[in-house]
Amino acid sequence: MEPGQPVGARLTPQLLKARSGEFALDSILLLKLRGLGLADLGCLGECLGLEWLDVSGNKLTHLGPLAGLRQLAVLNVAGNRLASLEPLAACERLQSLNAAGNLLASPRQLQCLSGLQALEQLRLRDPLARLSNPLCAGPDYRAAVLGLLPRLRALDGQRVGIRGGDLDQLCRDLDGPPEPHATPTLPPPARPWVPSGYWEPAGPESRTGSILDEACRQFQDSLRECRELDLRAGDSLARAQRALGPALAPAAPGTF
């Protein structure tokens, strides 16, 4: 243990696996390590998949191992001895942070959080739990924090309202003339996909004419077939006569 480091427990792989029930540190998604007397987060930086972490009520003075937790979204470090949140600048997916009950003395110590695009909820004091930070006693504390972190939606459990500049811009937008809208392009006129009269029933005269035409065609086809049969029969008879000609010829005189 380094000189000057507060006496307390150190986080080990065995403790992490026992608390999470996981065999691999990078498989841990959620950890609740509240009130364990931890002074050193040890190997916590190896939990690369960690998304939710509660280390409140310990003896932590630094958050160095958290710098590698890029998936971390919810973090509770309330009730520790932190004077800096600098390692959290790398937690790009952090959405909710509870740092009440620490030693943060100036809004400048929150500058490291200004680059966190996803951060929406921040708690630096909790009256019910009687937790606070020295900076919360300063004049215009709330305005200073919101000026530094304009993306916050909630500070100390209170929803952030519309600020003056945003309200003025909203009023100007509402009072301004509506933007002209482009004339919508009309679709081409519909065209029928079947000829006109396709679905209308044919009249009696049309039906009679169709029947007669069909009968004539069938009669002509029958005549054509008869002619073809007659020609084929004649050809067959002629070939038979030629084949039997020598046998049918009369015998010469004097032959037996």
Automatic annotation (TrEMBL):
UniProt keyword annotation of Repeat present: yes
One cellular component term from this protein's GO annotations in UniProt: cytoplasm
GO terms, biological process: outer dynein arm assembly
Bias-annotated ranges (Pro residues): 177-192
Protein name: Leucine-rich repeat-containing protein 61
Organism: Erinaceus europaeus
InterPro entries from the UniProt entry: Leu-rich_rpt, LRR_dom_sf
Region: Disordered, residue numbers: 175-206
Gene from which the chain derives: LRRC61
Record's keyword terms, sorted: Leucine-rich repeat, Repeat
